[in-house]
């Protein structure tokens, strides 16, 4: 097999090196970007008079034929061609002959790969964004459907204060909203076109890089040729964003898993989105949530891997950088799957109103409200807190809820209590009085839902 560099080498490439060095097994997924980039480059070479317009046409047609061959499965990917760039160029030579060699004028694989991978991850980032928007819609629908269901809110996984289930769901809306805007920021920052940087130093040819940028849908060309071929920040940045999305999904998964336990039983999963056990007939397992939680590990791992690969790499291109792809491809593939399956599952979740209602009776969720009552009647909050602590331990001993106490029992702890205390501390009041901006009251949650809808309309 002939190599591009064979004229200056005296021996054939070792077979093991060939296998070790090749990236074709995983970079072939960038064929579309490679072909698009080459077409844009050839058009620019034609426009600048570096190649003739006939040569440009031949090259472009050849490349389009290769695209077809790849898409209908007749293209043969070979390890000895090393990577997608060389594979396509070799096939182009087979189709159009020596003129194919003109395509690589004023170009290096270093700027070519920098372009391809950048275009690929930008394309995928846009798909991830779309999936997140679908996810947000599912969260919104569910929040509206269960708008007034009250659940216990937790801190330290201990019952804390009552909140609306929709308020809890809308907390996730905020997280994924930030993730969507992170992707937008990423798309802005990575909107620079590296082709034309050459191997590292630019080129002696009279290029029009702005034209190539425009052809490929970028706002502008990159400004420094060395940085253009050395930069993999955009992969790290998307890997980081995917890690944050994955972390958010993992937290949500954990809650789904907890809510599905017999101990909680707050929600039911649809049979189509749960699995059974091969031995225990009573089991219904939240595998989706568990696997989504589990995949966070490899996604973080991919981020750590590329950060570590790039650490201490001197400028400009080094072969180490071929290791940039598999990790981000894996993270992209997995996060897309995770988002889609998670929101499909979430969409079919049903809420066990009775179970949730029962759970509200225990745990003294309205204790803070009793303390707030005292504080609003002039008792310093620290003292009110102490009084309510005594009330809670009294109720624990009697095995009753705070609202089950009679007025005279209340007054044994403080003279300040009046008849209105029982009404003040109903669970509904505890929720709806939390009307401070961003709080859990139904009014606030309706406002959040309204804002969320207008956010989704703007993207
Ligand atoms: N397959 C290589 C990569 O993924 C392409 C760039 C190779 N450039 C070079 N000078 N060896 O990084």
From TrEMBL:
Catalytically driven reaction(s): 2-(N(omega)-L-arginino)succinate = fumarate + L-arginine
Pathway in which this enzyme or protein is active: Amino-acid biosynthesis; L-arginine biosynthesis; L-arginine from L-ornithine and carbamoyl phosphate: step 3/3
Gene name linked to the record: argH
Entry keywords, A to Z: Amino-acid biosynthesis, Arginine biosynthesis, Cytoplasm, Lyase
Taxonomic source organism: Leptotrichia rugosa
Residue ranges of domain Argininosuccinate lyase C-terminal in the record: 364-432
Alphabetized NCBIfam families for the sequence: argH
Family according to the record: Belongs to the lyase 1 family. Argininosuccinate lyase subfamily.
Domain Fumarate lyase N-terminal: 9-301
Name of the protein: Argininosuccinate lyase
Biological process according to GO: L-arginine biosynthetic process via ornithine
Pfam families hit by this protein: ASL_C2, Lyase_1
């Amino acid at each position: 097999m002939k190599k591009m560099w064979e004229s200056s080498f005296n021996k054939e490439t070792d077979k093991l090196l060939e296998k070790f060095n090749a990236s074709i097994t995983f970079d072939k997924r960038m064929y579309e970007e490679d072909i698009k980039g080459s077409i844009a480059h050839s058009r620019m070479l034609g426009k600048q008079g570096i190649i003739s317009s006939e040569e440009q046409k031949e090259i472009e047609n050849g490349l389009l034929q290769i695209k077809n061959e790849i898409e209908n499965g007749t293209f043969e990917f070979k390890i000895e061609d090393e990577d997608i760039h060389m594979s396509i160029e070799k096939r182009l030579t087979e189709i159009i002959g020596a003129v194919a060699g003109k395509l690589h004028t004023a170009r290096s694989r270093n700027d070519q790969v920098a372009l391809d991978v950048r275009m690929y991850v930008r394309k995928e980032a846009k798909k991830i964004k779309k999936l997140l928007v679908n996810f947000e819609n599912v969260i919104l629908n569910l929040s509206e459907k269960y708008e007034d269901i009250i659940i216990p809110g937790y801190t330290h996984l201990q019952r804390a204060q009552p909140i609306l289930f929709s308020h809890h769901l809308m907390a996730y809306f905020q997280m994924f909203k930030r993730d969507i805007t992170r992707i937008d920021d990423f798309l802005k920052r990575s909107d620079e076109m590296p082709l034309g940087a050459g191997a590292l130093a630019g080129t002696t040819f009279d290029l029009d890089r702005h034209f190539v940028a425009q052809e490929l849908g970028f706002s502008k060309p990159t400004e420094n040729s060395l940085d253009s071929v050395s930069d993999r920040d955009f992969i790290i940045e998307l890997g980081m964003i995917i890690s944050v999305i994955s972390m958010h999904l993992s937290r949500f998964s954990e809650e789904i898993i907890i809510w599905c336990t017999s101990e909680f039983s707050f929600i039911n999963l649809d049979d189509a989105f749960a699995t059974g056990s091969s031995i225990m007939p009573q089991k219904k397992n939240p595998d989706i949530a568990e696997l989504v939680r589990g995949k966070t590990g490899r996604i973080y791992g991919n981020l750590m891997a590329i950060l570590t690969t790039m650490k201490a790499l001197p400028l400009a291109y080094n072969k180490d950088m071929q290791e940039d792809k598999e990790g981000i491809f894996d993270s992209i593939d997995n996060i897309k799957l995770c988002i889609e399956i998670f929101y499909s599952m979430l969409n079919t979740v049903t809420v066990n109103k009775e179970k949730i209602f029962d759970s509200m009776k225990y745990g003294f969720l309205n204790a803070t409200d009793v303390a707030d009552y005292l504080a609003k009647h002039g008792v310093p909050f620290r003292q009110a807190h102490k009084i309510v602590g005594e009330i809670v331990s009294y109720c624990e001993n009697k095995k009753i809820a705070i609202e089950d106490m009679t007025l005279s029992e209340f007054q044994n702890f403080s003279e300040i209590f009046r008849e209105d205390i029982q009404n003040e501390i109903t669970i509904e009041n505890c929720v709806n009085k939390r009307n401070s901006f961003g709080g859990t009251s139904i009014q606030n949650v309706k406002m959040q839902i309204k804002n969320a809808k207008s956010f989704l309309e703007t993207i």
